[in-house]
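Renewal narrative, Specific Aim 1. Our central claim is that a sequence can be written position by position from structural information alone. The example that follows is taken directly from our test logs and has not been curated for this report. It begins with the structure tokens describing the chain, in the order in which they were read.
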């Protein structure tokens, strides 16, 4: 039975820890290759002897156990890399948001310095046609029609 033990490390050390784990997997794979060669060697011996058959069973069983250990170590490494990938993506997104906010603030400050041009039309002009009593009555009539 195996138990997982978790260690806390600084986030900047995660890639180095993953590398250590993968180096360990590499060593395990070397052992697997040796055990596999041993299994092949034993199978070339006189397989009518139970001692040789037992040796082959042990070598293959050991190879299988080592493969399971390597598989678990790779799974753990993959979990760490996936978590680290999320950290890096979040860090990049935060940097992009800060950059965007910085540019927006710069634009806002730049625009605040630009004076707004107001078109000066001079003095107000009176309309060409004066408002007559008839126009006012028509407006009142239309207003009453809309209310009813």
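The sequence written for that structure reads:
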């Amino acid at each position: 039975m195996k138990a997982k033990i978790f260690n806390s490390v600084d986030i900047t050390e995660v890639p180095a820890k993953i590398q250590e784990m993968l180096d360990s997997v590499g060593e395990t794979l070397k052992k697997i290759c040796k055990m596999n060669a041993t299994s092949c060697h034993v199978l070339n011996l006189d397989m009518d002897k139970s001692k040789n058959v037992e040796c082959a069973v042990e070598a293959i069983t050991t190879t299988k156990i080592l493969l399971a250990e390597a598989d678990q170590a790779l799974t753990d490494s993959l979990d760490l890399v996936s978590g680290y990938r999320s950290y890096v993506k979040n860090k990049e997104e935060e940097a992009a948001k800060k950059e965007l906010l910085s540019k927006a603030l710069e634009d806002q400050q730049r625009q605040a310095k630009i004076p707004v041009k107001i078109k000066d039309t001079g003095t107000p002009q009176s309309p060409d046609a004066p408002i007559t009593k008839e126009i006012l009555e028509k407006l009142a009539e239309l207003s009453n029609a809309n209310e009813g």
